[in-house]
Design a protein that fits this description.
Length: 343
């Protein structure tokens, strides 16, 4: 039956077939569905959306929609995390090779149309960006890491953005959630109107700018005085894929951040808890979320108070117990200080 289902229903839980949608919806409404009713849609069993009722094997009970959503988001998050890791390795490799080239004094002016160009110095980077802006006709995709954007940063590229808007080019920008609190960004988006669509995530990859899905710019060192201009189709396509996956996970700037479902814990504290559970230090967490170390530690202190943790070790245990590490859906209640955990 599994093989037959895979052929007749080639899809995942994120895109049910029409028959599967009807049967699963009915099972959720009624609490269970007869096994015979589910035989035409074996995909529901294969995807673990239905499973046998232990009290009566002739019936199937549904997996809760909340658990299915958690499973889907975890899968996408793992894919994006792997993409981020691979992109970081690629950037490190490019920087290493570029360093070898400079040592050998072979970085002569590249030929026109080179697949990878090393742009050394801010003036050269700006000139290359202006050239790409002038040639752009359709779309610009950007990832802007860090926290609240400074007015100087926004003003720096404003002339390019206005030029693109004037030609009808559409722009999509990804920021961290922290950027929502910057008035400069809100003013910029109001000025640009419907030419720009912005979304936010807890954390994003390093800076990325893509023009017409044909040329990309990424930093090549930590202070961004070196950049790579990429025109190799495979590299650019890979970066577009990374952007699109992050975009699907991101939340529109006009929409509120989702509630954590745990009283007293904010969305940002939930993000910090997940990174703490991965073993990251305060400085790393702050950098990834675009906040200061001081702000990060203030949130950690509030997390400890809310979860009733007297030490970092105990905080890690509490985070796992309430599901803030992403491994559970929050089946346990948040304990009061000094009280036992409620199962």
């Amino acid at each position: 039956m599994a093989g037959h289902g895979a052929k007749e229903h080639p899809h995942g839980a994120d895109r049910l077939c029409e028959a599967g949608d009807r049967v699963y919806s009915r099972a959720v409404r009624r609490g269970r569905v007869a096994r015979t009713d589910a035989e035409p849609v074996p995909c529901l069993l294969e995807l673990a959306l239905l499973h046998p009722d232990p009290d009566d094997m002739e019936w199937l009970v549904p997996t809760s929609p909340q658990e299915v959503m958690t499973r889907l988001l975890r899968g996408v998050y793992d894919e994006v995390s792997e993409s981020q890791r691979r992109m970081g390795s690629a950037v490190a490799a490019f920087e290493w090779y570029a360093g070898l080239g400079r040592q050998l004094n072979t970085l002569a002016a590249p030929a026109e149309g080179s697949a990878i160009r090393v742009l050394d110095g801010l003036s050269r980077i700006q000139a290359a960006m202006d050239e790409a802006t002038e040639a752009c006709t359709t779309e610009v995709l950007t990832v802007q890491p860090g926290g609240i954007r400074r007015e100087a940063e926004l003003t720096e590229g404003l002339h390019r953005a206005l030029e693109l808007r004037g030609r009808g080019v559409r722009m999509r920008d990804l920021y961290t959630h922290v950027a929502r609190h910057g008035q400069g960004l809100l003013n910029y988006l109001e000025l640009m109107g419907d030419a720009v669509e912005a979304r936010t995530l807890d954390e994003v990859i390093d800076r990325l700018i893509l023009f017409d899905r044909t040329v990309a710019f990424i930093p090549a060192n930590s202070d961004r005085t070196l950049a790579l201009e990429l025109r190799h189709p495979a590299l650019v396509e890979y970066l577009v894929t990374v952007f699109e996956r992050l975009w699907r996970l991101a939340i529109p700037l006009t929409a509120p951040l989702p509630d954590t479902g745990i009283e007293g814990i904010s969305h940002r504290e939930q993000s910090i808890a997940a990174l703490l559970a991965e073993g990251h230090q305060d400085a790393v967490i702050a950098e990834r979320l675009g906040i200061s170390v001081r702000t990060c530690r203030a949130h950690i202190a509030r997390l400890s108070e809310t979860l009733g943790a007297a030490s970092r070790t105990q905080l890690g245990v509490r985070i796992a117990q309430v599901g803030l590490d992403g491994s559970r859906s929050g089946a346990l209640t948040v304990p009061d200080q000094g009280s036992p955990t409620v199962l």
